[in-house]
Write a structure and sequence with these properties.
The chain is mainly α. Helices cover 57% and strands 0% of the residues. The termini are far apart.
Length: 69
């Protein structure tokens, strides 16, 4: 079985079986706001990035910098 590696917030969300609504609720924001962050993650605050990483049980570096290095 080939395991897909997550490269984007959407990948992490889908690989964890989460909906946008679930993540938005965890972050206390509207689902449309979270959807914009999936498209433009550079607009997240550091606090929000840490919260998202915690939800996915990975480091902020894994989500935001892994593919940039």
């Amino acid at each position: 079985m080939i395991k897909k590696e997550a490269k984007t917030l959407k990948d992490y969300r889908l690989l964890n079986g989460f909906t946008m609504e679930f993540i938005a609720e965890k972050l206390n924001m509207h689902p449309q706001t979270y959807a914009k962050y999936e498209l433009f993650p550079e607009n997240l605050s550091i606090k929000q990035a840490k919260e998202i990483a915690s939800i996915f049980n990975v480091s902020v570096n894994d989500i935001f910098f892994k593919n940039k290095l």
